Amino acid sequence: MKIGFHVSIAEGIDKSVDRALDLGCTTFQIFTRNPRSWSCSPLKDSEVEAFKEKVKRANITPIYGHMPYVSNLASPNNEVYRRSMQTLKTELYRCSELEIPFLVVHLGSHLGAGLNEGMRRIAKALDYAIRDADGSVKILIENSSGAGGQIGSTFQEMKQVLFESEIGDMIGVCLDTCHGFAAGYEFRSLEGLASTLKSFDDILSFELLQLVHLNDSLGEIGSKIDQHEHIGLGRIGDEGFKLILKSPLSRVPLIMETPYDKRRTDEDNMKKVLDLARPS
User: In the CATH hierarchy, which fold is given to the domain comprising 3-277?
Assistant: First the structure.
């Protein structure tokens, strides 16, 4: 089982590899820059080489990049939309430089402009960025909780984005358990999980699934509350994660994006997942 965390790049992007190893990760995810700013400095050759060398020595794969929070690929605001498209293009280039093979992308919110218009703009943005990329980095679209006009809260909406894209065969999927649960998908019973997985496979197919964001949910099922919780301490709970970790979802890499607080450390969340994954 490949399992890891989203880790910090503070004090240098290569330090993320050290942090991942300290946590016992066999895969990990990073932002390549400040996720709350539009601007970023170009990567220096020295930091790129330091990162790649540490990854090679650690033999830790795969690694995932994540798009900055500021972007909204569905935005009806033309300036925000333009900057979001350029940010996506830049992130694909940065991941390519770092030899990171996947970039996780939130689809964004239509902000009242309508679902169909939002999906059209997302597909156009994805095509714009991919068309000029070197093909070494695959975009993974992530499901959403559905709050505030967010697109991608249903598997059908994600499929529609792929259908709208001219280069949809170059795009994969990241499934976030917190977002899925908040959007109304069940994970806490054998029957509920089986129904969720069948729906995913029928609409999108498991062939597209490249990553699972393994997060518990502070909100109840269908609440649309996008707030991650420590593994087992939220509404999905221990029993839900026992089922998830014994399901086909555990066959793809698992990345935790659990909170940073005093109740539990990343090491504790790692131990919890490994304990829940053990045969009964």
Answer: TIM Barrel (3.20.20)
